[in-house]
User: Which sequence fits this backbone?
């Protein structure tokens, strides 16, 4: 029996469903199951972020200042995805985050080394750290010659005494090459009974990894090879705006080693972005450019003609975004992804579904509807790798701040340029400030999420993203719109209480 297409007409094709004049989001639609003839582990999630950048998993960390800085970029690359470092800071600060992420090889939240000059320096405080490292120059740009434990320093009667009187010498066992993986680092820690190791590259301190941090990762799913560029370093992206000054910012980022640049605008179909796309492609022809955000085929076509290597889709679909309410423009994310992907695929331009991702089912829907990857903000916010410190609520829950780049708080740091409002006297918020619960490390929950995505693809009879796209466009995969009652039925309901545990 031929199972390549449904033998009985049932449900709707995507073309018919999304041409009825309704703006659908992910929860509005549901895929009908197809035929399974392969195991879950046979599903391949490898994809393209842009024309020339390949990912092992279709996950992108959003360029938001409460989501992606150096640690998130490092962790996402180690998982096989990529992080886009935000631009809500100075150009030099953003470039430093990129350089930091690319210099790391260990994707765990390790120590930011504090250093003092040897041998006659002194220590004023430990700033919450357990160790201070003594280097030849007093900065991380030179060789480590010793270290001071906080307990030793606290026991000193005279805190101004020179370092050589109490610092501990660093033998060669304490320092390891910067590109050691977690297994190699763990072996050094155990063999030498150390509490930490210093990662060095060309006699420069790159990172400090503690035994406690390594122990904490042993229960995590095993990491693959990660997203590594031709230079042997993690691939890292960065966002810029569309102002003239962003050309100078881009120069700093290119020198720092970015692999892709994302033009960050809430409405990407503008003369400013089109001119910048042409500038980047002419000035840095080897650098992939991702344009957006767009939600219509007309917007997408303009940016494709300008030369983009990828498109970011979504307007007002994020959990902390209020653009659709404030400005009365936007589109339901499911419709936006399908429509833009339909035209982008004709030019071989990958689409990034940006926003509206709350669970693995949303990821499946975004990818099958035509996206090559999903960009996530709230899904990653609150994790160990996200910027910011945890706060503990009265009920004991740990939370981290999460804010929209269109919030007034973020705009005060410069994100108003993303909304073409940096010259306006009155700032109109298109986002809010909130908080999300502690999710733990992305190194743990993203692999579980990807396994759930694979199971979704298996139910649809799609063994890869490319297969899913082909099944959708051929009309083989069928969809239906869900009523409000159907959406309730599809979730947890009818229980007095339940325990939710994702992994």
Assistant:
């Amino acid at each position: 029996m031929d199972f390549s297409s449904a033998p009985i007409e049932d449900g709707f094709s995507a073309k018919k469903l999304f041409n009825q004049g309704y703006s659908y989001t992910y929860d509005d639609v549901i895929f009908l199951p197809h035929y399974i003839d392969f195991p879950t582990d046979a599903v391949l999630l490898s994809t393209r972020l842009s024309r020339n950048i390949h990912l092992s998993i279709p996950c992108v960390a959003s360029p938001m200042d409460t989501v992606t800085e150096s640690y998130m970029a490092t962790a996402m690359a180690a998982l096989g995805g990529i992080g886009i470092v935000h631009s809500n800071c100075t150009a030099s600060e953003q470039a430093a985050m990129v350089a930091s992420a690319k210099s790391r090889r260990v994707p765990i939240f390790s120590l930011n080394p504090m250093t003092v000059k040897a041998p006659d320096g002194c220590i004023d405080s430990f700033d919450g750290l357990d160790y201070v490292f003594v280097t030849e120059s007093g900065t991380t740009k030179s060789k480590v010659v010793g270290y001071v434990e906080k307990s030793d320093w606290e026991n000193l009667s005279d805190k101004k005494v020179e370092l050589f009187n109490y610092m501990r010498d660093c033998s060669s066992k304490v320092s390891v090459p910067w590109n050691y993986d977690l297994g190699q680092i763990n072996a050094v820690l155990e063999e030498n009974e150390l509490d930490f190791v210093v990662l060095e590259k060309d006699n420069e301190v790159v990172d400090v990894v503690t035994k406690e941090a390594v122990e904490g990762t042993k229960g995590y799913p095993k990491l693959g090879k990660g997203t590594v560029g031709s230079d042997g370093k993690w691939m890292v992206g960065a966002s810029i705006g569309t102002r003239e000054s962003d050309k100078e910012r881009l120069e700093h980022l290119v020198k720092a080693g970015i692999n892709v640049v994302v033009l960050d605008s809430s409405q990407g179909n503008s003369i400013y972005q089109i001119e910048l796309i042409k500038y980047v492609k002419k000035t840095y022809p080897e650098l992939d450019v991702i344009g957006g955000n767009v939600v219509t085929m007309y917007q997408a076509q303009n940016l494709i003609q300008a030369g983009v290597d990828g498109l970011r889709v979504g307007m007002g679909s994020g959990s902390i975004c209020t653009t659709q309410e404030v400005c009365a423009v936007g589109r339901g994310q499911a419709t936006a992804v399908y429509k833009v992907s339909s035209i982008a695929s004709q030019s071989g331009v990958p689409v990034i579904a940006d926003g509206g991702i709350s669970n693995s089912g949303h990821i499946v829907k975004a990818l099958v509807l035509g996206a090559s990857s999903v960009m996530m903000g709230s899904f990653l916010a609150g994790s160990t790798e996200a910027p910011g410190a945890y706060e503990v609520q009265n009920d004991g829950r740990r939370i981290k701040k999460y804010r929209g780049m269109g919030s007034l708080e973020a705009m005060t740091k410069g994100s108003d340029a993303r909304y073409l409002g940096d010259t306006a006297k009155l700032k109109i918020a298109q986002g809010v400030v909130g908080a999300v619960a502690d999710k733990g490390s992305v190194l743990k929950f993203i692999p579980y999420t990807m396994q759930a995505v694979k199971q979704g693809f298996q139910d649809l009879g799609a063994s890869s993203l490319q297969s899913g796209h082909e099944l959708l466009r051929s009309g083989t995969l069928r969809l239906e719109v869900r009523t409000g009652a159907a959406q309730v039925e599809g979730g947890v309901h009818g229980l007095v209480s339940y325990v939710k545990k994702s992994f």
Observations:
- The chain is about 30% helix and 20% strand.
- The CA atoms of residues 153 and 159 lie 7 Å apart.
